[in-house]
Amino acid sequence: MIWVTGDMHGEMSAFKREKINKIKKNDSLIVCGDFGFVWDGSKEEKRRLKWIGKRKYTVLFADGCNENFLLLDSYPTVDFAGGKARKISGNLMQLLRGETYEIDGKVIFVFGGGQNDNKELVVSKGTLSTPESPDRSEVENGINNLLKYDNKVDLIVTHDAPSSIKGFINIDDNEQEYIHVTLENFKNTCKFKMWCFGKYHQDRLIPPYYQQLFEKVMRFNPI
Fold first, then answer.
1. What CA–CA distance (Å, rounded) separates 8 from 14?
2. Burial of 12 (C-beta count, 10 Å sphere; 0-12/13-18/19+)
3. Distance, CA of 163 to CA of 197 (rounded, Å)
4. DSSP class of residue 96?
5. For 35-91, how does the pLDDT look when each residue is reduced to its tens digit (9 = 90+)?
6. What is the pLDDT of residues 91-132, one digit of tens each?
7. Is the dihedral of CA 9, 12, 13, 14 positive or negative?
8. Main-chain phi, psi angles of 84, to 5 degrees
9. What 3-state DSSP class applies to 67?
10. What is d(CA 219, CA 37) in angstroms, rounded to the nearest whole number?
11. According to DSSP H, which parts of 89-216 are helical?
């Protein structure tokens, strides 16, 4: 069974969200970016990552806007569920941009990253630089992986939202970055049953296929 939730920002309390205690062995919990637990490489952080990796279910996350990308890059890339992922600890994996995964009989396309609205955070943290925005190789990777499935998947997981969907979140926000255009292109070329994204700290369904997630833990159960 597949479960999906929103930003955790490195808060252990996020694992107390309603329904997480219902997740069973061999299930998967997917976090739509800004996971935040890979941040400073401290002993305490490693202890927490080990705890997360020992859950009875698999914890998977896309990268978001506010991550320590250099530290994430230091973890090994492995084969996972038909795609490439970074193994963080035990059953904890980072799902990579443009990869497709076959999990619980479902095909899942993942494309993390997004527009960072907090430029001061990027400057002050030093290690965070600007890789929250996708590059061309990641986009091409996504295009090629989707073609393997004839541009048909069950679930799309991102952190940010496509251009057209972003307008439903805030009608006055007309700023369009490369990530929004990229996701819009995937939206227009790929067929899917549900698209889940985080970033905007709201739990709301944008009919018919777009689920905005923050604290909600949603079971992906397509018809």
1. 6
2. exposed
3. 13
4. P
5. 999 999 999 999 999 999 999 999 999 999 989 999 999 999 999 999 999 999 999
6. 999 999 999 999 999 999 999 998 876 654 443 334 333 678
7. positive
8. -105, 140
9. coil
10. 23
11. 119-125, 136-147, 163-169, 178-189
Q: Percent helix, strand and coil across the chain, each rounded to 5?
A: 30, 25, 45
- Alpha carbon distance 200, 134 (integer Å): 19
Go through the domains of the chain in sequence order and give each one's CATH number: 2-220 (3.60.21)
- Taking every pair of Cα atoms in the chain, the longest distance, rounded to a whole number of angstroms, is 46
Which ranges in 104-174 belong to alpha helices (H)?
Answer: 119-125, 136-147, 163-169
**Beta-strand relationship, 92-95 and 83-89:** antiparallel
Residue 88 structure tokens:
């963080």
Q: How many residues does the chain have?
A: 223
Amino acid identity at 158: T
Query: Which pTM value belongs to this model?
Result: 0.92
Write the CB contacts of 190 (distance below 8 Å, at least 6 apart in sequence).
109, 146, 151, 152, 153, 156
- For residue 87, the surrounding DSSP H or E stretch is strand 83-89
What tokens were used for 71? 């530290």
